[in-house]
């Protein structure tokens, strides 16, 4: 049973050195700091580097055995003056 979680993004060395976006990876921990889930963002290089704040992605959350327990999808939504009503949705 989890009453709170801590989400920690793993920093990629390549991203820190070159300043480019890589697929994000996260550790999801319980209040004791023990990892209970692991999350990986899936998208392509184009989305990460050119559409960063509004990019589409899928995040797969797996338990410690590697079994997927949650999948979060966010489609690409246009956020411009021509389409102001297209808010981001997950």
From TrEMBL:
What are the UniProt keywords, alphabetically? Calcium, Lipoprotein, Palmitate
Cofactor(s) recorded in Swiss-Prot or TrEMBL: Ca(2+)
Any single Pfam family the record assigns to this protein: Scramblase
Question: Which cellular component terms (GO) are annotated to the entry?
Answer: plasma membrane
Chain ranges passing through the membrane: none
- One Gene Ontology molecular-function label: phospholipid scramblase activity
| Role | May mediate accelerated ATP-independent bidirectional transbilayer migration of phospholipids upon binding calcium ions that results in a loss of phospholipid asymmetry in the plasma membrane.
Q: What family name appears in the similarity comment?
A: Belongs to the phospholipid scramblase family.
Q: What is this protein called?
A: Phospholipid scramblase
Native organism: Ceuthmochares aereus
**Taxonomic lineage:** Eukaryota, Metazoa, Chordata, Craniata, Vertebrata
Q: Which gene encodes it?
A: Plscr5
């Amino acid at each position: 049973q989890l009453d709170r979680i801590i989400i920690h993004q793993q920093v990629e060395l390549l991203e820190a050195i070159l300043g480019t976006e890589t697929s994000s990876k996260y550790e999801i921990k319980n209040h004791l700091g023990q990892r209970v889930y692991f999350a990986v963002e899936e998208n392509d290089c184009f989305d990460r580097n050119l559409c960063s704040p509004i990019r589409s992605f899928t995040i797969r959350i797996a338990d410690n055995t590697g079994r997927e327990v949650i999948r979060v999808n966010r489609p690409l939504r246009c956020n411009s003056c021509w389409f102001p009503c297209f808010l981001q949705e997950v």
